[in-house]
Write a structure and sequence with these properties.
Shape: elongated
Number of helices: 11
Distance between the termini: 30 Å
Structural class: mainly alpha
Strand content: under 5%
Oligomer: single chain
Length: 211
């Protein structure tokens, strides 16, 4: 579908306009550096420091633990930033095409077509942030979307916002949902559909105001 293709291209152009590739590449350097430092400290404490008389091994181990904490925190920050940039790119696409439903349809199709690819995507956490959907979470996303397929067809044309909002609220109450969401590179597909539905409502409101 040419309209859906245009919406996806507009999403990617949004990333370029916002310099997301540069931003995410620079940010990704922080957890990578912290991980290298943590690993080197751990190995140094095990193979060198523990044999010394001034307890340098204990200090190296402590610095290694601190570096690992920095790595985890930086990773969480990077994932959060990635989700925010994805939302901005979705908004850019909706604004550019004036038809958020085209991107919504594309997201459903792309997510559905990548069910079962989680293992293939697992090895490249940083690279996942550059895709239009997070392939690692496609299985979960499509299960969420299947429960709302009738409503999605209505953004497309009858999206039931209330049910999507309720699902978002329910996921926040679930501990595993919070953990999974914190390490996801993209917002859950159904939340992106909620935002696109709001974009469509705003566009329709502007059209009515102009008329």
């Amino acid at each position: 579908n040419a309209d859906e293709l245009q919406s996806v291209l507009a999403h990617e152009i949004g990333h370029l306009r916002h310099n997301d590739v540069v931003v995410m590449t620079v940010i990704a350097f922080i957890p990578m550096l912290a991980y290298i430092i943590a690993q080197s400290m751990f190995f140094s404490s095990i193979f060198g420091g523990m044999n010394s008389k001034n307890n340098s091994g204990s200090y190296l181990m402590l610095f290694g633990l601190l570096a690992f904490v920095v790595y985890i925190m930086a990773q969480l920050f990077m994932m959060s930033l990635s989700r925010t940039r994805e939302s901005y790119a979705d908004s850019y696409s909706a604004s550019y095409t004036k038809h958020p439903e085209y991107l919504a349809s594309s997201l459903v199709k792309i997510t559905a077509s990548n069910v079962g690819t989680a293992n293939a995507a697992k090895d490249s956490t940083i690279a996942r942030s550059f895709y239009i959907v997070d392939y690692f979470n496609s299985d979960k996303d499509i299960k969420d979307i299947k429960n709302h397929i009738k409503e999605i067809k209505d953004l497309l044309p009858d999206l039931d916002i209330d049910r999507f909002v309720q699902q978002a609220k329910d996921s926040k109450k679930n501990v595993w949902g919070l953990i999974n969401g914190a390490f996801a590179t993209h917002p859950p597909a159904y939340r992106r559909l909620i935002d696109l539905a709001k974009e469509k409502a705003e566009l329709n409101g502007r059209k009515e105001a102009q008329n």
